[in-house]
Specification:
The protein is α+β, with helices and mostly antiparallel strands. Among the domains are: 1-127, Winged helix-like DNA-binding domain superfamily/Winged helix DNA-binding domain (Arc Repressor Mutant, subunit A), CATH 1.10.10; 202-285, no CATH class. The protein is built from eleven helices and eight strands. The strands form three sheets. Strands 2-3-5-4 form a four-stranded antiparallel β-sheet, with helices on one face. Strands 1-6 form a two-stranded antiparallel ribbon. The model is unreliable at 110-188 (pLDDT under 50). Residues 143-167 have a biased composition (Polar residues). Residues 124-141 have a biased composition (Basic and acidic residues). Residues 105-175 are annotated as: Disordered.
């Protein structure tokens, strides 16, 4: 799964991409740096299955047909060319797509090696003349020439590397969307979509709890939850009861609950707030208790209680027999 995907909001708006299309293209743009090139009669394409998109972008969609429709939308926008084999989808970037990687002055943020400048519609997948071991990088050069815009699963999370790049240079560069940790501090990072309802101020007391709840809600129900004054008040109470350091974790964990009563209410905040401490315990222990698991725990406890009572009765009989022997 991709941990971080960087979106060029300037180009996304210019090309008329919605947040989902921009997220997908940001991922597709980096694919030639690691996916397999395929030679066809029409030239070089790159393999990208719909299953791979679902695996790498779980926040985008979990349906192969939806993933393919989004790829077709990118093709209609003139950003990619699609082809296919008998069992896999193929793509390649267009000349227009290369603008995603350019500064405002038209120069490339990640310059293409000179020997590849003449190749049309295809990004380089390797360096012909790699830098020698021990040679220092020039000022402004990148440490990792491949997979520039995304942190792939193989990246060492412990180094906390930030491979995202600014959309433009200089002191007047626009602010980027917040990178939010969803559910776990060591979990995947995602860009907050611009169309997410609710508070936008990162310093807002309820922002983090709401963002985690809303993102997890959209992942489960494919739509945003309703934001209103009542919701804001409930989230404020949730933060007060659980603490600002953990309320957002519990909010995301709550959306994993599959209890029938919760599902009937579509994971309403009323339920989360009413049993906030219980869901906190479930988050801490990694458990998700529903009606079935509760009944199983109840039966287990009843069996243990019955066994203890039987043992006490046997012990009492033995003690009574021992006393009779000495009367």
């Amino acid at each position: 799964m991709q941990f971080t995907v960087t979106i060029n909001q300037v180009k996304a708006l210019e090309w008329g991409l919605n947040s989902q299309q921009a997220l997908l293209f940001a991922f597709v743009y980096g694919c030639p740096s690691w996916t397999k090139p395929i030679k066809t009669d029409d030239g070089i394409f790159f393999a990208l299955s719909k299953a791979k998109i679902i695996e790498e972008l779980p926040l985008l969609t979990d349906k192969p047909d939806t993933a393919y429709r989004m790829l077709k939308a990118l093709e209609e926008a003139g950003l990619i060319e699609l082809s296919s084999t008998s069992n896999i989808t193929l793509f390649r970037l267009t000349e227009k797509a290369i603008e995603w990687n350019q500064k405002l002055d038209g120069s490339e943020k990640y310059p293409t090696p000179p020997e590849n400048k003449g190749r049309k519609k295809i990004r380089s997948t390797s360096e012909k003349n790699p830098i020698k071991v021990g040679e220092k990088s020039e000022p402004g050069s990148e440490k990792s020439p491949t997979n520039q815009d995304t942190n792939h699963q193989g990246t060492n999370q412990g180094t906390n590397q930030d491979t995202s790049q600014d959309l433009q240079d200089g002191p007047d560069k626009p602010a980027r969307n917040l990178v939010l940790v969803v559910d776990r501090t060591d979990g995947p990072r995602v860009e907050i979509p611009a169309d997410m309802p609710g508070p936008k101020d990162q310093s807002c007391k309820t922002f983090k709890a709401w963002a985690n709840y809303a993102m997890a809600y959209r992942k489960r129900y494919s739509t945003w939850p309703v934001w209103n004054a009542k919701v804001g008040g409930q989230l404020g109470q949730l933060v007060d009861r659980l603490g600002a350091d953990v309320a957002h974790h519990v909010a995301a964990h709550f959306l994993k609950t599959s209890d029938a009563a919760v599902l009937r209410k579509c994971h309403s905040l009323n339920e989360l707030l009413a049993n906030a401490e219980s869901y906190h315990t479930q988050w801490v222990t990694g458990q998700r208790i529903n009606g079935t698991t509760a009944r199983q725990m109840e039966r287990t406890e009843a069996n243990v209680s019955a066994a203890e009572q039987a043992a006490q009765m046997v012990l009492a009989k033995r003690q009574a027999g021992d006393r009779n022997e000495y009367l």
